[in-house]
Amino acid sequence: MKKLVESKETIIVAGSFAGHPKEGTEAKYLDIKSGDVIVGDVRREIRPGETAIFNQLNLNPDAVSRTDSQGLHVLISVFSGRKSSKDNLLRCEDYDGALESLSGRTIPIRCQLIAEPFSELGR
Predict the structure, then answer these.
(1) CA distance linking residue 116 with residue 112, whole number of Å
(2) CB within 8 A of 77, min separation 6: which ones?
(3) N or C terminus of the chain: which is more exposed, having fewer CB within 10 Å?
(4) What is the pLDDT of residues 81-120, one digit of tens each?
(5) CB 78 within 8 A of CB 111
(6) Residue 121: how many CB atoms within 10 A of its CB?
(7) In what side-by-side order are the strands of the sheet with 11-21?
(8) Is a pLDDT exceeding 60 seen at residue 123?
(9) CB of 71 closer than 8 Å to CB of 99
(10) What is the pLDDT averaged over residues 5-11?
(11) What is the spatial distance between Cα 31 and Cα 6, in angstroms, rounded to a whole number?
(12) What is the dihedral of CA 72, 66, 37, 103, to 10 degrees?
């Protein structure tokens, strides 16, 4: 935290929302890597110690209609804003879970500076 504050670095919290495709969904709607239908994304830039809040999600209704009944999931990634360095300064856990389970919750995501000796995050 100290390094980020001293260098006036910001933190980016990015979320990607997706769902499993319905049978017969056209390839143009599918993510090449995951095979899922991407229905939206969000991004917030915050200062160290702040909490990113996502009050409103603008999901693509056409894409949502092409997902199956398993429900949507979200992948949340965190990285530095690259204000003080052209490279990412953080190594963070990702969060991957059901979108419906996030409503009204705060999801802690553990990070450490990439320059620090490696430790298992969360331990």
Answers:
(1) 7
(2) 13, 14, 15, 16, 92, 94
(3) C
(4) 987 778 889 999 999 999 988 888 899 999 999 887 766 6
(5) yes
(6) 12
(7) 37-46, 11-21, 67-80, 95-98
(8) no
(9) yes
(10) 90
(11) 39
(12) -20
Torsion of CA 40, 122, 53, 82, to 10 degrees: -80
Amino acid present at 107:
I
Contacts of 32 (CB under 8 A, 6+ apart): none
For 49-80, write each residue's pLDDT tens digit. 999 998 888 999 999 999 999 999 999 999 99
Q: Which two tokens stand for residue 30?
A: 């599918």
Convert the pLDDT of each residue in 16-43 to its tens digit: 999 999 999 988 889 999 999 999 999 9
| Domain residue ranges in the chain | 2-113
Query: Taking Cα atoms as reference points, which of 6, 87, 16, 12 lies closest to residue 52?
Result: 12
Query: What are 106's two structure tokens?
Result: 């705060």
Say if residue 14 is exposed, middle or buried (CB neighbours under 10 Å; 0-12, 13-18, 19+). Answer: middle
For position 39, what pLDDT does the model report? Answer: 96
